[in-house]
Design a protein that fits this description.
The complex is a heterodimer of chains A (about 400) and B (about 80). With about 400 residues, chain A is of the alpha/beta class. Chain A is built from eleven helices and 14 strands. In chain A, helix 5 runs parallel beside helix 9 and helix 6 runs parallel beside helix 7. Classes of the chains: A alpha/beta (about 400), B alpha+beta (about 80). Strand 7 of chain A pairs parallel with strand 1 of chain B, so a sheet runs across the interface.
Chain lengths: ~400, ~80
């Protein structure tokens, strides 16, 4: 054992390095105490000690952090510092590298906060079943905040940009100071009485725990709980949680995100409407197409085509009848023509008798008209036709021409 | 219809109509009726979206307890 101890001898640097490594593992912490021995160095760094009744610890706040410090550091003042614990190896001292300093007193507020939070939690004020559903498309937006607050301007800016169609109704209330809790409560109640907003945004910009304290008051929590209009809280920064946030129907990180998250933008809603419009149009077209298909099918159906067929048949019939009719007509015309020829012959017959009256005769041999003396032989019998009758004669001599 | 129907309800109805139409075999005339209704709802919603009148107001109450909306931009007052 004694040998081991002798082997574990460190140099000063080594032991300080070892201590530094161990202390570096402690996460950033809040430490409460009184300021003592405070010195503002020419470099801009602040050196001081924190102490309580029994003990003290060195602190350094580098210039980069110190320049944001609004608090005036005076010896004896109780503060809370936030930072890392580290070792200054050169001096062999450990100290707090302070990043933020807040005035004390917050401890009491923190206790009050926890106490009220537990109480209301036990009562069920934070239960999800009591949360009112935030309307998806609120048109009338009630806002509770201070009239001149940056939070109000933020919300108005976001809404003007994203959702210019919404109506913004401000019910101004102090959001800081003694009157804040009563004014916030009254504003919530008034909106409920007015009953003409779809949602209430209860908003306030960032600040210290004291600044935000009104939102940790029981009467504010209860009036949020009692509201029948849904309330969205956007209070402080992302890291700040107030009692109001726990009891509200929706908590968002910041005032502007209340407007961004809770209210759909014009673009979003237009997309939704367009989507619905297209779906409806598509459906009506589909429905119409279906009817058209039906009609096409009807057209092809046997039932309908039977009639078409019948009509076609009838048309053929008509053609045939037409032909038939014209055929008969032709026949009639032919008949008429025939009788016309017959008549004509009779007319001609009548004519040659007139010639006979003038003294001419027609001679016939064996019923045939004789047109030349060469057709006649001696002793042939000839029938001679006069205009008023016929006689028979025998050829007894050929007379020679002079 | 217009005065009573909220924007929310109008969009809800529009969604219902879409779902109903998409569900399938509606008779054509019912389908066309729904389509006509949808057209009205869409127009109504789009009009609401375009409306930017009296955008910012302040709630106040007179001595009789009546609510008023003060439109600071126009400087006029509208009784609700």
């Amino acid at each position: 054992m004694s040998d081991q101890r002798e082997e574990q001898i460190f140099t000063v640097s080594e032991i300080n390095k070892l201590v530094k490594d161990i202390l570096d593992n402690i996460p950033p912490i809040w430490v409460i105490g009184e300021i003592s021995n405070c010195k503002l160095h020419i470099s801009g760094h602040i050196y001081f000690s924190l102490k309580d009744e029994k003990s003290q610890i060195s602190c350094i706040m580098f210039k980069s952090y110190a320049k944001n410090l609004k608090l005036k550091l005076e010896n004896g003042v109780k503060i809370k510092v936030f930072g890392d614990i580290g070792v200054y190896e050169k001096g062999g001292v450990y100290q707090i590298y302070v990043k933020e300093i807040r005035e004390e007193g917050k401890g009491e507020l923190q206790i009050a906060f926890e106490k009220l939070k537990n109480k209301l939690f036990e009562e069920g004020l934070f239960d999800n079943e009591h949360k009112i559903k935030i309307p998806e498309y609120p048109l009338n937006i009630g806002i509770i905040t201070a009239k001149q607050a940056a939070a109000f301007k933020d919300v108005v800016n976001v809404l003007t940009r994203r959702a210019p169609f919404v109506k913004i109704i401000l019910n101004p209330a102090q959001v800081q100071g003694d009157r804040a809790k009563q004014e916030i409560k009254a504003a919530i109640e008034e909106f409920n009485e007015y009953n003409n907003v779809d949602v209430i945004l209860l908003v306030r910009g960032g600040g210290s725990i004291e600044d935000l304290w009104a939102f940790n008051e029981e009467i504010v929590a209860r009036s949020i709980y009692d509201s029948h209009i849904p309330i969205i809280t956007g209070i402080g920064h992302e890291v700040d949680f107030t009692i109001a946030d726990f009891v509200s129907d929706l908590r968002v990180p910041t005032p502007s995100s209340a407007a961004e998250i809770a209210i759909k933008s014009k673009f979003d809603i237009e997309s939704i409407i367009n989507n619905l419009r297209q779906r409806i149009l598509k459906d009506i077209i589909r429905n119409l197409n279906r009817r058209e298909d039906l009609i096409v099918n009807y057209k092809k159906s046997y039932g309908l085509n039977r009639f078409v067929d019948i009509i076609r048949q009838k048309r053929v019939d008509i053609d045939r009848i037409h032909l038939l009719l014209t055929g008969t007509l032709l026949q009639e015309i032919n008949d008429k023509l025939k009788s016309l020829t017959f008549l004509k012959k009779r007319v001609e017959n009548t004519n040659y008798r007139n010639i006979l009256k003038r003294g001419y005769i027609i001679s016939r041999k064996d019923g045939e008209i004789v047109k030349s003396k060469n057709d006649i032989n001696l002793y042939d019998r000839l029938i001679l036709e006069y205009y008023d009758g016929k006689i028979r004669g025998i050829v007894d001599k050929f007379i020679k021409e002079k | 219809m217009k005065d009573k129907l909220s924007f929310e309800e109008a969009l809800k109805q529009l969604e219902d109509i879409t779902v109903k139409m998409e569900s399938g075999e509606l008779p054509l005339d019912e389908s066309i009726n729904l389509y006509e209704k949808a057209k009205i709802l869409i127009k109504y919603c789009e009009e609401k979206l375009e409306n930017i009148e009296n955008r910012i107001g302040e709630l106040s109450r007179d001595e009789n307890g009546k609510f008023h909306i003060k439109h600071s931009e126009e400087g006029n007052e509208k009784r609700d």
